[in-house]
Design brief:
This protein is mainly beta and 391 residues long. The protein has one domain: Beta Barrel (Porin), CATH 2.40.160.60. Helices cover 4% and strands 60% of the residues. The protein contains 2 helices and 21 strands. The strands form 3 sheets. It has a 16-stranded mixed β-sheet that branches. It has a 3-stranded antiparallel β-sheet with strand order 10-12-15, with no helix packed on it. A hairpin with a 2-residue loop joins strand 16 and strand 17.
Length: 391
């Protein structure tokens, strides 16, 4: 076993063993929204929206894409800072701030044939999970040792999950039922560092005993998974769309010891509904869309700060589309509630809102979305999409 793997495994098993007791880190390890129109609606339409990101969320929705389409999202990545209460790294409180921005979703979809219903293929990259937390303390107890403290404590943990998805979706001849499947390649990055100085405080003047610094330890593991989905539009209620997908847990391998810290990315059951209704009285070209969605994560495994349990999320949203000459301006409002994924995490509840603009030919669109989590910094994303439709 090489020294790097041994050190990573030691940290996973011991250094972070106490984190689960009190940590309050915001939980986006598997529920990070890479960004789309649905973001402003509390992510409530990701199971039913037909877009390039459907290759990751629900490939059945790809069956309803009838023209070539491209999309890209640029958004901030959240960061947090925690107060540490012991030398094991247990968090007692956490505050968040806006981190750097990056491309979190880029995709392209194209029908297999423009003349017949042979389905649609999409390729997409998306950021599906992100965690960046720094813990610090001026002085904390050094384990259970009497008269010893860890001074100038500092640690940092970062985890990032990238997905490359290749999906296919196809509707039946009546266009009211679609099925789809995607192959997922997951790339899991984990980075950790911990440092502090141990002092004996039994004397009137503290005596330095040792200095601990792991250095920056990092690695990348990989895994393969699948997503399968269905989408259904009731014949007697064509304004309603029902969608469901199942993503398999992804067992990670390689990574120079990462798998001893994060062994399996959880699977996800996604179930949602979208309902389109007319707009306000007298505005015949306006519309209203309601979305509701449930997510259940299962089958993940990790240790330390990344110790996992089954997790659930509920998403709700509404969109009102104002029609003007040549354009549509959607206004969105939503709410998302996410249960903690482990005792090391805190629940996350956020109010979302957004607006967009697109031409009436539905060729191009720009969507701006904000999320205001309770007790956390605001998130922002911008998504640009283009459909290759002849005017």
């Amino acid at each position: 076993m090489n020294q790097r793997i041994a050190k990573f495994g030691f940290i996973a098993a011991t250094t972070l063993s106490g984190v689960a007791a009190q940590a309050q880190v915001a939980d986006l390890l598997n529920t990070f929204d890479a960004g789309s129109r649905s973001t402003g609606l509390g992510s409530s339409l990701t199971a039913t929206d037909a877009e390039t990101l459907s290759a990751y969320n629900n490939p059945a929705a790809l069956g309803y894409i009838s023209h070539r389409e491209a999309a890209l999202t640029y958004r901030n990545l959240p960061r947090s800072s925690s107060s540490v209460s012991t030398s094991d790294g247990a968090r007692s409180s956490t505050s968040t701030r806006t981190g750097p921005s990056d491309i979190t979703n880029i995709g392209y979809a194209f029908p297999v044939s423009s003349k017949s219903n042979r389905g649609t293929i999409a390729v997409s990259y998306s950021l599906g999970g992100y965690l960046d937390d720094t813990g610090s303390a001026t002085q904390v107890p050094f384990g259970s040792v009497t008269n010893q403290v860890a001074a100038n404590y500092l640690d940092h943990i970062e985890a990032k999950t990238d997905y490359l998805a290749v999906g296919y979706g196809k509707t039946n001849s009546s266009q009211n039922l679609s099925f789809g499947v995607s192959l997922l390649y997951a790339r899991q990055y984990v980075e950790y560092r911990q440092q502090y100085s141990v002092y004996d405080t039994s004397a009137s003047t503290p005596v330095l005993l040792s200095t601990q610094d792991t250095g920056t330890i990092s690695g990348t593991a990989n895994g393969i998974g699948v997503v399968a989905g269905l989408e259904y539009v009731p014949t007697k209620l064509p304004a309603l769309t029902l969608g469901a997908s199942l993503k398999s847990p992804i067992k990670l391998s390689g990574g120079d010891g990462v798998t001893s810290y994060y062994g399996t990315i959880p699977g996800r059951l996604l179930v949602g509904a979208g309902l389109r209704r007319p707009g306000l009285k007298g505005r015949t070209d306006d519309y209203t869309v309601f979305g509701v969605q449930l997510e259940q994560f299962f089958g993940g495994s990790g240790s330390g700060l990344l110790s996992l349990k089954n997790q659930a999320a509920g998403d709700f949203g509404i969109e009102y589309g104002f029609s003007a000459e040549g354009f549509v301006v959607p206004i969105r409002l939503g709410y998302r509630t996410i249960s903690s994924e482990g005792t090391a995490f805190a629940d996350r509840n956020e109010l979302t809102y957004g607006l967009g603009i697109r031409d009436k030919d539905n060729r191009y669109g720009i969507d701006l979305s904000w999320a205001t989590p309770r007790g956390a910094a605001r998130d922002f994303s911008i998504t640009a999409s283009y459909r290759f439709v002849n005017p």
